[in-house]
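User: Okay, second chain of the day. Same drill as before: sequence in, structure tokens out.
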Amino acid sequence: MYNLGTVFNFEFFRTIKKKSFWIMTLLFPVIIGLVFAVIFFSNQTTTQAAKDTKNQKFSIEITDESGLINKDLITQFGASTSTNKQVAIDKVKNNKLDAYFYYPKNLNKTNIEVYAKDVGLFDNGRYQAVASLLLQQSVAPTIDAQTTAILQDKVQFSSTTYKDGKQFDGLKEAIAPGIFLVLFYILITMFGNQMLTSTTEEKENRVTEMILTTIEARTLIVGKILSLVVLALVQIVAILLPIILAYVFLRNQLALPNIDLSNIPIDPIRIAISASIFTFSFLFFTGILVAIGAIAPTAKEAGGFFGVIIMFLFGPLYAVTLFVSMPDSPLVKFLTFFPLTAPIPLMLRNAVGNLTIADSVIGIIILAISSIIALSVAVRLFRYGVLQYSSRLSLSVIFNKNPKKLG
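Assistant: Same drill. Structure tokens below.
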């Protein structure tokens, strides 16, 4: 294993120098940045449009059969009253009037009618806004401020929930352990193909024979796996760093919520559980994907298996409501402990707080054993399948103890 460092350095720096690696690594934060930019410019445009609309003046006639509209407000809004509904509507049709508001006698039974000249899909909303504002300001003086706040749904609530006798905020509690779930999803979707093809490149280039003259197959595959793990850490930093910087320095410009990190609960046990699940899950699927790459003769053929792995891995997301509301159901238990589907249910349930210590221990043990088996099988498959260029490695060859029989 003395060549392990050489293999690791070669695989790591060869990948880190590829443009495709950085394109895939930075693609996610770039997309996030573009989304933030769209939100920023959209907010700017909306704010400016709202200001422009507020400053715009347009002619209004009002028919008030409800008797609620304040006459002084009608004058302040630059409007006038009309006693003939149809005549006012005809004025709007003939472009002699911008807007006409009709307030019926019983507002609780009949709709307020707004007739107006079209000024664009988004700006047309100004007419109903003015009609509503006129009504609200007319009736506001007739009731007290407290009742007004209740009717306008402006009453503030402060909720405190308890679990096992202690104050508990489920949403905040899920943030710290939930980060591992998000990172796992990002790494597998963005880095999975690299894991899959890491063992097929040399086979396709027909340089494996030369490599194996100086390096053992086991050393080569272990070095590849270690480099994949470190490259994954590089991707995590490259993905998170721009997002963190954007939040710290551009939060106000992007109208992002102010998250007080000091108030986020830190549960060492749940974080340790998520970290363990994340680590063994990543090693397990790394072993599986590397093993598939060792079996397949080409990267293209190996890619056909990737969709199947993703289906097993992220299929449980379709049952996400079950993991939250019915954690003890047989289906949830099966998906939680079946190795190919376990990572998402385990990390999700741990994030929402319904994963028991017993279930977490069982799940971690299953993933740990599965990762060891997957990595061991990957090493064996690579050892016997590394020279298979034209066909997949058969089971009889995999378990053949006599290497001389290998063709």
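The CA atoms of residues 91 and 97 lie 5 Å apart.

User: Thanks, on to the next one.
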